[in-house]
Amino acid sequence: MSLEKTSFIGIDVGATNTKIALISKQAFILSRSNFPTKFYQDKIALIKKILNEIHKILKPYKPSAKHIGGIGIGLPGLIDHSKGIVFSLTNIPGWKDVPLKRILERRLNLPVFIDNDVNVICLGEYLYGAGKGSRNVIAVSLGTGIGGGIIINGSLYRGASFSAGEIGHIMINENGPRCGCGRFGCLESYVGNYAIIRTAKEKLKKKTSKILKELTGGNFKNLTPEYLNLAARRGDSLAIEVWEDVGRYLGIGLSAIVNLLNPDRIVICGGVSKAGNLLLKPVLESLKEYSLDVPFRAVGIVFSKLGDDAGVIGASCLVNQGG
Amino acid sequence: MSLEKTSFIGIDVGATNTKIALISKQAFILSRSNFPTKFYQDKIALIKKILNEIHKILKPYKPSAKHIGGIGIGLPGLIDHSKGIVFSLTNIPGWKDVPLKRILERRLNLPVFIDNDVNVICLGEYLYGAGKGSRNVIAVSLGTGIGGGIIINGSLYRGASFSAGEIGHIMINENGPRCGCGRFGCLESYVGNYAIIRTAKEKLKKKTSKILKELTGGNFKNLTPEYLNLAARRGDSLAIEVWEDVGRYLGIGLSAIVNLLNPDRIVICGGVSKAGNLLLKPVLESLKEYSLDVPFRAVGIVFSKLGDDAGVIGASCLVNQGG
What we know:
Structural class of chain A: alpha/beta
Oligomer: homodimer
Number of strands of chain A: 13
Largest sheet of chain A: 5 strands, mixed
CATH superfamily of the largest domain in chain A: ATPase, nucleotide binding domain
Helix content of chain A: 25-40%
Strand order of the largest sheet of chain A: 3-2-1-4-8
Strand content of chain A: 15-25%
Number of domains of chain A: 2
CATH class of the largest domain in chain A: Alpha Beta
Largest interface: A-B, 47 and 47 residues
CATH topology of the largest domain in chain A: Nucleotidyltransferase, domain 5
Shape of chain A: globular
Low-confidence stretches of chain A: none
Radius of gyration of chain A: 20 Å
Distance between the termini of chain A: 28 Å
Number of helices of chain A: 11
C-alpha cells in the first residue's frame, strides 16, 4: 500500500485509553488502533508504547510511510503547543514539563504537534464536524471533567498561559456543591459525571425508579450516566428529571460563554452528550433565560459530529495548522 | 497651523456627553470639545451637531485639515463595525439601523469608522494605555452598565453578531437581585452603579454613617458611588464594606473571564474604578478564590491609564485598524 504525503497520524491520549489513527487529507480514518493508557503509567513506557504503535500502524505502508505529513497528539492537560511541552497531565501521573514534541521528532524524523485534548476536539469539529462553516466555535466536552476549546476567527485560541477554555470551573453558584478542584459551585460540580450521579442519588432518596433498579442490578452504586440515559429513554421520570436538572445548569454555564463570546456555534461533545434531546431541551431553555437576546439568536447549539473520533481527527489537523 | 495626514479625529458618544478630539499619530490630544448628548435627542440633530463639531475642531488647521487620516467614533450600543451600521443605542433613542459610516463619509469626504464604545476603550488601552504590551486584553467598564471589550491576539474580537463582551450580564447567582435587563443575578445587578447604591442603602438601614450623612446633606437619596468613594477614603467603615462587597462580586465576575479566556490583562475602566485599591483588594481576593491557579497567575488586573480620554483615543485608533 502507498501513502500520500498528505496523510497524517492523529493520537488521542486519554486517561483511560489512547487511540491512534492514520488519517487521510480528507479526514478519513485509514486505519486505527488503541491501548489502555493506565498499563503505561511510567512516562517513558507510555512514550515507547506510542512510538511502537506509530511504527505498527505505518508498517503496511512502507516505504511510502516516510512521506507522511506529520503527527498530531491531543493530551489531557496543560500544554505549550508552540514549544511542544507537556506541563502536566490530568489523571496520568509522572508528566511534568516533558518536551514531548522534541522527543518524538528525534525518534521519528517527522514533524510532531501537540495540544490539549479539548482544543484538538474543537479543531476537529470546526474543520470537519459540527462546527464546520462557523468562524467562532466553542467545544464543550462533558465527562468526568468539563472542558472547553475555543476557535476565534478560525483559529484555536489558547490564552496567555495555554489554559483558555476552562469552562468547567466557571462558578455558577457560590453556595453550590464542592467541585473536584476544591472550589464550590463550579459548572463541573453540577454537570460533571459525579454530579450527575449525585443528583440522581439525591432524587432516589425521595422517589424510586423501577427501571434504574433493574439496570443497576438493584445496587445504585453501579449507577452511571449511561444508565440514566437508557432509563430516561424508557420513560423513567426520575432519570428524565436528572437530565432536566443537568441541562438547566449546563445552559446557565453556556450562557456565560454566549454573553461573553457571542459565538456562532457551541459543539457539545463527550460521553454525556449521548443524552441528546433529553439534555438539549433544558439546555436551550435555560440558555435562553440567561443569555442576552442578540447573542442567543446568533448561536447554534449542536452535538459533536465526529463523536469518539473527534480526538484523533482533530489531533491530525494540528499538523496542517502548524501546531 | 498645519496637520499631519496621520492625525485623526476621535469621537466618544455617550448617553450624557459626547466628546470630540483631534488626536496625533502618537495618541496625543491636540484639541478637544464636548457637548451634552441629550440636547440632540433626534438622530438627525445629533449627526448635524457631530458634523458641526468636526468642522469646528478642524477649522484652525485648514487647508491641511483635508489631509487628516480619518475619523473614529465609539457609540454605546450594538454596532456592525464592518458595514458601519448602528443597530441600536442604549439610552439614546431614535437610532435603529443607521448607516452612520456612509452618512458621515458622504458629508466629510474622509474615512469614518465606528464601533461599540467599550470595544473602542479596550482598543485604546491596548494600544496606548494599561493594556500595552499584552496580547489578550479584556477591558471591563464599570458604571450604570457593566460593559466589556475583548482583544484576542492583538485584535478586537466582536463575536458572531457584534455583541461579544457582555460581561455585565453573566449570571453569578440565580437567586440574585433583578437586573436592568430583566434577568436575575447578573454581574451588573451586583456591581453596577444602582447596585452599589442599593448595597449602601441596605447597610444604612442597619448601621449609620456620619460621613455619608454629611456628604449627602442628610438625604441618602443623594448617595452616589463618588460619595461612597470619598467616605471610604475618610475611613467610613460602612462605605469600606460597600466596596468590599462590590469588589468581591466583581472578582467573581472576572473569574469567569479568567477561567474562560486566560487573558494577560484585565483593564478596569469607568467612573467606579476611581475607588482604586478599595475595590482592587477585594477583587483580587475573590478572583483568586474563584479562578484556577494557572490563569490566575497569568493575569494582571490594572486600572485604566487613559481615563476619561480612553473613548476618544480608542476611537481614533479605529482608523488605523481599518475599523
